[in-house]
Amino acid sequence: QVRLVESGGGLVQPGGSLRLSCTASGFPFGFYYMSWVRQAPGNGPEWVSHINTDGGSTRYADFVKGRFTISRDNAKNTLYMQMNVLKPDDTALYFCVRGPDGSGPVRGQGTQVTVSS
Q: I want to staple 2 with a disulfide (CB 3.0 to 4.6 A). Which of 21, 26, 48, 95 is the partner?
């Protein structure tokens, strides 16, 4: 069964950090680009970042450049997102999605990130 499970979300103060994880199973993880997508209440989904199959190439949305870092460990079938200097506008449900543009059907249930003082 193809599955993606996110973890690592939580409540953090502005300026703080979180590290999200996404564990994959049921498919050859290392063969696929992977993305992070987020969705805030009342808004549509926003693509945040993607990483290529071997982790050597990454891309970011302008609103997270310099603050978020995507990475992967293919031996552990796990995708990561290190999020630093978090802002209240980063509050959202964060999903990992198979594929480069975040629109694919294979995605997890999400992990909630709330940035608030």
A: 26
